[in-house]
Amino acid sequence: MLVLRAGTAVDGLGGSPAAPAGPDPAVVAADAVPDPGRVVQIVAHPDDDLYFMNPDLRYSISAGHPVTSVYLTAGEADGVNATPSKGASAAPDKPAYAEARQNGIRAAYAQMATGDRSSAWKRTVVPTRGGGHAEVDVLVANPRVNLVWLQLREAGHGYADVPDSLHGLWDGKVARLESMLSSGTPVKQRFAYSKDQVVQTLVGVLEQYTPTTVRFQDPTPGRYPGNRQYTDHQDHFYGARFVQLATAAYAKAVDAKDRPHFAVQNYVGYFNGSLPSALDPREAREKLDSLDTYAWLDRQNHCGSDAGCGDLKVADRPAGNRWTDSINYARGTGTNWLTSDKDHGLWAFKVLDGQVAVWHRPGPVGPWRGPDLLPGTGMDPSASAVTLADGRIAVFGTRTSFGARPADYRRDVVYAVQKAPGADAFGEWQSLGTPETADEAWTSDISAPAVSVDGTGRPAVYVRDGAHSLRGRVQRADGGWGPWENHGGEDLHGAPVTATDGSGRRIVLAATSKTVVGWAQPEPGGPLGRVTATGLPDTTLPLTAEGREGGVRLWFRKPGSGNVRTALMTADGGLKVNHMTDLGGLNGFGSVTASGHVLAGRTAGGQLGAEVGPGRPWGRSPLMFVGAPSSTMTGRNVVSLAVVGLDARLYVTSSADAPDAYLAPWQPVGPRNAKP
């Protein structure tokens, strides 16, 4: 059965990205124009996409990418469509409030896609694989934009025990979750889903839209250390866990030759309001504009609905808790997934289809191979590569497993080691476990691992744990690993970074909500020193570190600006900061990568920007990408740079490591990742 049928508009999705503005030293080869890819984003409530996935959402729509947003619940809350000050006198009507929120979403998407909030939609009913029905809305003026409404009941509370919810369904407190149909939906027949039927419904959506990028919320957001309440809405992260199950089932059920590969991007939710602002004022204003449309500020009945044309609950504060000032990726922020070997070959490691994908170029000019998927599923969207003392490459990441019971949900740190230097084969995944005791303690909220090899040749792996402190394990001389050690720190967020200085000492750095803190080995082979304040100002979350200039250089972004900053960290006589410099940039957000003279990261607009030498202007490529870029030195005088596009395809470029060099045209690796 074809699970979702929205007419020819759905089946005929296509398009190409808009041309970039500004200087462009990093062009794409004429015969290698990047595919637009197909984005499916799945959220718990209407407005989660606007608050937590924008501006990525707007970038994709503006570039002409096919975008489908799927809403798990109706978002009916208490049924009162009024500002808090007027809510006490308003009569609750859950179907009408759900319809008003849908109207607000349609208006916001129409505004982003066409400039006209009242642009028409075609609303249809489709059967789902779970045995119910969904509403599918197609924007008539831009049929690449689709909305899918599954219309299940929401919890109505961020953390309280509500059995009739996604959380309750996941935990088995209810056998089936009922639908909550909006007052204007063309779906007229009520239904209820079991846990498996929710998963199968989502699998059907993925089969219909065959995404190359799947966006969803953070399945492990953690708890506040004080009151132990969730840092995000329970619908957000339990909805994300349903999506995890669905993407795994989709990857297993549909052979890779019958669908494109897909990458995953996860997003931080409510906790954005407690972190430094990641967006520059112009981007934040654009994001707020979409929320203003959704909130129906002018109260004009442009949609012709008795339910209302937007969500008045947020009309007093459309920005939420500073949520329109930021966007943060929950995973996939690491920049150490591209590396080179002694023969000047290149290796790239990213997660596709829930497995680590490997691309390999033998030697400096050999033909690329890949993506080849390493055996082993459940991999979270982040991989980090490190070269061991014997020349082999080890790949580290985290893996999610579900277990037989809901409480068995677990994430552990895993690694796989190349069987011999330069070999295509890797050994089986080995688990380093987790510093967490159980999912219930901190919702399995560990960061991606940061890995470095000190001057004695011993690797160490570090993660931020659910209590917002640093944990680490060090490999012993016999090849075994020591226990998880607690290195302290508090208020740590995001993922730590680590690199080795010119004396072979490990330095570890992590961001807090107000500054950066660090740890350093007093000597190679020694224990990590105590947590040290760096005195650096607040920074947006992703950090990048690389050993150079005798120390470890740190790159990060200025809050509320997106400009890139850097500082050199040294460990002689304790951890010290040596002069912070503002490097400018093209605004933007997220991780930056640095190797040799090349510095690159996401710009405002979503494309990759690069600086190819101090003081030279930043250039913008047409490439939009998933997660973070990565770069590496290939030999002594060549820098290689790579991204994985929204089409889940690897793109690479290179530059001589010289003051007047330019990046070569971007080249894709492997065949187009197109719908069969």
Account of the 3D structure:
The protein is an alpha+beta fold and 676 residues long. The chain has a domain of 293 residues: Rossmann fold, CATH 3.40.50.10320. The protein has nine helices and 37 strands. Strands 3-4-5-2-1-8-9 form a seven-stranded mixed sheet. Strand 12 and strand 13 form a beta hairpin. It is globular. The N terminus is likely disordered.
What does this entry show, briefly?
With 676 residues, the protein is an alpha+beta fold. The chain has nine helices and 37 strands.
CATH class of the domain at 33-325: Alpha Beta
Could you estimate the helical fraction of the residues in percent?
10-25%
In DSSP terms (H or I, runs of 4 or more residues), the helix count works out at 9
**Strand-residue fraction?**
25-35%
User: If you average the pLDDT, what whole number results?
Assistant: 93
- Could you say what the CATH topology of the domain at 33-325 is called? Rossmann fold
Which secondary-structure class do the elements indicate? alpha+beta
Biggest pleated sheet? 7 strands, mixed
| Second-tier CATH architecture of the domain at 33-325 | 3-Layer(aba) Sandwich
- The assembly state of the depicted protein chains is single chain
Computed over alpha carbons, the radius of gyration is: 24 Å
Keywords for this structure?
alpha+beta; 7-stranded mixed beta sheet; 9 helices; single chain; 4-stranded antiparallel beta sheet; disordered N terminus; Rossmann fold; 676 residues; globular; 37 strands
